[in-house]
Amino acid sequence: xxxPGSMDLLMHHMAQTQPAIGQTMGAFLHLQGTPPPxxxxxxxxxxxxxxxxxxxxxxxxxxxxxxxxxxPEPDLRIRVRHHVVPAGDDGLxxxxxxxxxxxxxxxxxxxxxxxxxxxxxxxxxxxxxxHHSTQDGMGMLNTLLTLFGTPPPSSPLPKSRPSVGTYLQTxxxxxxxxxxxxxxxxxxxxxxxxxxSTWAELPTEQLRTAALPRRxxxxxxxxxxxxxxxxxxxxxxxxxxxxxxxxxxxxxNLRRPEERDVPGNLxxxxxxxxxxxxxxxxxxxxxxxxxxxxxxxxxxxxxxxxLMDRTxxxxxxxxxxxxxxxxxxxxxxxxxxxxxPLAFRGDPVVAVQPFDWLPHNQPAxxxxxxxxxMTSVYFATDAALPGLDRLSAxxxxxxxxxxxxxxxxxxxxxxxxxxxMADQTHPPTVDxxxxxxxxxxxxxxxxxAITPDAGQADAGIDSMAHTVLSMALEDRLGLDVTERELAxxxxxxxxxxxxxxxxxxxxx
Length: 508
Hints:
This protein is an alpha+beta fold. The protein has 15 helices and 14 strands. The protein is globular and about 60 Å long.
């Protein structure tokens, strides 16, 4: 077991020094089928504990000196529980509201799993919760895949070697993020730490089709829509935010494939100001794409990980302390996509609803999760900020004004579990013509430069093309391949060979 990282120790220290601010994060899985017996769920979890160190480890000890403790047999009687609610949507909504704030078990591993029943005869909900000191967003996703899905293969990636300039730019950007902005430092409305929770839901295709023509991804469109919603809110309620980008940070996953099951936090936040000063959606989207481009670069991600691993916990805490003051406060954002179908005992998960905590002196935390054709967005906003509890409604209004809203499919009442091309009798062959067609037709690259012997840069394949290729492979084959894995291949021929092998190895 690795030693706790600086981010793990920071979360643990904050939990001890700010006990009133819960760090509970997780997801509600909405399933279609007859609710199972509670004991069946407990047996299922117990059978998977040996594959889930996140559920058998927890930090113990004072602040930054804590170390991992191992409990191979956590008490499932207090961790896998049943919550019966009144029939109807109101009963489920009340349970959802309660479980986003209810304390976790106070001893041993900090997680629990709730079976929620009673709101409908043929539906039930599983609520997976964990403390942020032991699981980050990707850790929670991998927990869900291990318990209720099929985890992706863990093939180690060759490590990119950042240049000295990349390290220096990464350090400069980190220091710049600690500069005071004063946007959220208002003596009339001081940040209170009291959280208002709301959700919004929209078709993922509505975001994706807005981003693809400009060579962006779903996360880019999500941030562009969020920027527009905040522009409307600032105009109505927050003069300090009018006509300027709003300070924000975005989660960057630094977890390597071989670390899929490792407990703790293997991510960092990168400065990603939201362009709320721009009136047009396309201009905001272009701004977001330019801002997020560097964090998608494998060399930049390696530099971020190296710096995180080498930064002493006390220095990490000092930086975090500066960032969590009202004059330096920023909105935190994150996005995750669940590419593989989830189910329990054959009952399909038809929707995933994320939730997260609101850090000290932060105006809002916004988390988006795409699954089964829909994107659910969670908004935790500081209750002291006037009108910000309507951010979810403003987000949907802004999404409806996006250029592709009219063409977006209407959301079904109960979305079916997605079928992939790989489930069909004759899936397409992953070869050079197949990959080239995606790069030309979807990413808009010139066909002449894409030859088997060409290096990726010579073929025009940049980080945006990797994003387009990754999304197309997911849509057409159900193949889960990250942009980083694509970028590590030196030539077009190596890229095609890598994808052909991954397609052949994929578990249906």
